[in-house]
DNA sequence: GTCTATAAATGGATAGAC
DNA sequence: GTCTATCCATTTATAGAC
């Protein structure tokens, strides 16, 4: 189902940590598609290329694996924050093309980032019955991005780059657009190809352009 | 885990169809929270109040139950269409209060309708690995509502009720707001209480009011 | 129509050899 | 560190009594 990527290094030294990481990666791969409780230790072992009994050398039990993945989400949130900060550093210029490109970048390289995307898909399943997963899900897709966007719009209003408005509501509208496109095109089971990706980008650019036009001071922009 | 709700009726007559319905209802209850493959026939039987072996009198096997639920989704789509049509019949007046109330009604009484809400939650899980579920999910939350909203906005533009614009893009913006609120407040594992519901309504009204203001012809409205 | 009993497969987890 | 072998609980599903 899932093959291992690196056959190169197999030195008996740091193999312990390496295998542990491979188990976590394979677990996320499987959990994000089938859900935690559906995936058996046998399947997981097969995906990693070891027997299921060997997994117990690295983890206490099955839920321990899930807990380790959950813990990783928090550091992933930090990473997302940092990466998004970089992407929005340029926002001080606030040019139309730049504004749209930033939103597209957010979907294409942060939400659809290989690792975060799998985490989101896993949380999408687990949040239905797991309170902690539900909490992480809203933090990841709502609370933090909204908080960030609100600060960006506040800054822009104070700098006179956009007309006065409610920054919190603007942030909500912005995130609504982002999540709408993300879920419309990337929420299902289907592998997404290039043309699929193109369609998503086209609609996102369209909606962001409309949003951008509404931000203007009525004079210089658009 | 789940106890049965009705001990009252046990007449030997039409019990066959009735029990079948009770099994389907209990199955949806459990599948929508834990996912299809996680729920065992024992749990399901316990929820209904019969032994798991008795379920096989009503259904060929476990997947047969899922298939029956899936089939029901299509009729549910029709029902949603009819109900939404009723709700939007009034839209010909297009008064601010009415416009907002219609959107709130859509979330509160259609998306959060007991049955449809469970279907959506179930599809949220199954879509990750089931193509048919993924298809239904996008039909239910994207394709059909967008199609409907586009027709509504087109009609309104032709009637001169709102200023000329791209109806398809307007529909996308509208649905983005609806889904944003729906998922922000009702996507998790937590039971939602009255104050939670109030917060959701408040934000939805806020965003719909902003959307409404953008639709105006620049003169009479707002 | 629902029950008990049971078959056959699969689940998580441990013990101990190498 | 990973293996084989094994334990025991639970799973889906069937057979047959009532």
In short:
Two copies of one chain form a homodimer. By secondary structure, chain A is mainly α. Helices cover 73% and strands 0% of the residues of chain A.
Layout of helices and strands:
The structure is a homodimer of 222-residue chains.
Chain A: H1 15-34, H2 41-48, H3 52-58, H4 62-89, H5 96-111, H6 114-126, H7 131-158, H8 167-186, H9 194-215
Helix pairs in contact in A: 1-2, 1-4, 1-6, 2-3, 4-5, 4-7, 5-9, 6-7, 7-8, 8-9
The structure holds a DNA duplex (18 and 18 nucleotides).
List keywords for this structure.
mainly alpha; DNA-binding; elongated; 222 residues; 9 helices; 73% helix; homodimer
Helix amount of chain A: over 70%
Largest interface: A-B, 40 and 40 residues
Q: What is the residue-averaged pLDDT of chain A?
A: 89
Strand fraction band of chain A? under 5%
- What multimeric state do the chains show? homodimer
Query: How many separate helices of chain A?
Result: 9
**Unreliably modeled segments of chain A:** 1-12
Largest sheet entry of chain A: none
Query: What's the total count of β strands of chain A?
Result: 0
